[in-house]
Amino acid sequence: MLKPTEAQDRADALISQAKKAGADAADAIYVCDAATQVQIRLGNLEDVERSEGEEIGLRVFVGKRSATVSSSDMDTKILSALVGRALDMAREAPEDEYAGLAPEDLLLKAEPHPIEGDDGQDPEPELLRELALKAEDAARAVNGVTNSEGGGASAGRSIVALATSHGFSGAYSTSGYSLSASVIAGDGDGMERDYAYDSVRFLEDLENPENIGKEAGERAVSRLNPVDFKSGAMPVVYDPRVGNSLLGHFVGAIAGAAIARKTSFLLEALDTQVFDSAVNIIDCPHRKRGLRSKAFDGEGLPTAKTRLIDNGRLTQWLMESASARQLGLQPTGHASRGVGGAPGVSVTNLHMGNGSVSKAELIKDIKHGVYITELIGMGVNPVTGDYSRGAGGFLIVDGEIGPPVSEITIAGNLKDMFKSLIAADDLEYRYSVNTPTLRTDSMTVAGG
């Protein structure tokens, strides 16, 4: 793989070509990835895959007209032709009064904030095979597990470089490792599956494979023999591994493009109380070894810790430059992009802060409710906030987690759900988006 400085040189060179060829403005993004994946099933090696690739994307502006092109071939003649094609396409494109690079005065000018995101390792497939095998063996050793979908381990490194024609140039590298196990418990019509996984930036931080396997096996077995229950309005408690999906819906609703198009259920919510006053939601782009940590965004703006929800109040939209111009506001440093198309927005390491009660205290007064550990489908209306999803998990009976339930439906409206959310105090930073255990009392649950 290239070094970050070499990747930066490639992006800079393409920008220089575009300017010489007649572009009024341009930006370029270079991405290089290399990954090794190993899959084990029933103790046998099932697949080893190595992938390497590089792409470069160029966006050019001719006045208010723009076009984006990309290539996976770094040959100088190919890239020269790419520049010409981009300019020809831009001249024929419709004008867009909001298009353009980020405001020059907002670009990252200082030394980028140090991001501890790359351990520089490239482990051999044999090590990954051993990790996957240990995870699957531990899962299959759990009493009640009858079959396996496999254990998997992967290792990869990426380099991203971004350059703009008005003064920004930067690059960074990241490493990434994952380990998973997925098994089946029971037999016949009573089979249930579940999984566990871990994903980290540094190999030394990867969860013990035996723990991952044991967790997967115990989860699968715990779901055996689901029971029927009485449907109706009742409290719903989200396990942290699915509670983070609620923040995904929140992020989509505060994206600048959704606000500009008027397609968000939080359209009128800026600077109002969206969650309970005890709730804080924070984006942390500089977290050491964070899964999405980065020093600059997809337009070259500096990233910064952002309290999106401050004591329940929505503080800002997430904006790249185009939606910011449309809304008459400033971009917020949340632009994200690939090699094709214009920037969108995304968060980095997002979390909801801890509440003040334990998980046991959160559910102790629930006479009849459900504890959700799995969500199925995407029945969410982003315009109205109406929410209806298939789910699985466990009954809560007299303040205790009880027998499993499956193929149920949980429904409500995200605006009501957000306002009623209560968080436990068990936050862990396991994913890129993290929440404690969450409770909402504003939902309807129907049995399968």
UniProtKB/TrEMBL annotation:
Gene3D superfamilies linked to this entry: PmbA/TldD superfamily
Domain named Metalloprotease TldD/E C-terminal: residues: 231-447
Domain Metalloprotease TldD/E central: 120-224
Cross-referenced Pfam families: PmbA_TldD_1st, PmbA_TldD_2nd, PmbA_TldD_3rd
Domain Metalloprotease TldD/E N-terminal per the UniProt entry, residue ranges: 36-90
Similarity-based family: Belongs to the peptidase U62 family.
Protein's name in the database: TldD/PmbA family protein
